[in-house]
Amino acid sequence: MTKKLRAEHAMAEAKRFLGQHGVWYDELNPGHLKIGRSINYWPTSGKVFIDRATGSRVDRGLPVLEAVLREQGYLQGPAAPKATPRRSKPITSALSGQADLQMPTVEVFTLAAALTVEVTDTPQDHDHD
Predict the structure, then answer these.
(1) What is the pLDDT of residues 61-80, one digit of tens each?
(2) Domain chopping of the chain, boundaries
(3) Fewest beta carbons within 10 Å, which of 34, 43, 51, 67?
(4) Please, are residues 85 and 66 in contact by the beta-carbon 8 Å criterion?
(5) Distances (CA, A) of 116 to 113, 119, 121, 123
């Protein structure tokens, strides 16, 4: 896949994600989406930057954009579950100096409260006299 095709695919995926969640955005220039007044997203690199913040987020990609959108109040409710967690490749001496190394990703899990109900066919004796 060519670099241009990867960029177009990444942009289409980001626009689809934002559209599915009802989040309005502007495409300021090819490869750059502006969400609200302060969130910037570059789908090709996955970089997320919030205006007036120092530097961009270390982690990259749509999961990071989703987390930022939740932090900033653009998305409500629980995060969509991931079908397959993405694992980073180990860094070995054979890979040193290559430009396509992946940064480790951060996985966040939210525990939900559970209610357990016991159902029995035997009626309980409520006559305590």
Answers:
(1) 999 999 999 999 998 876 65
(2) 3-71
(3) 51
(4) no
(5) 10, 10, 17, 19
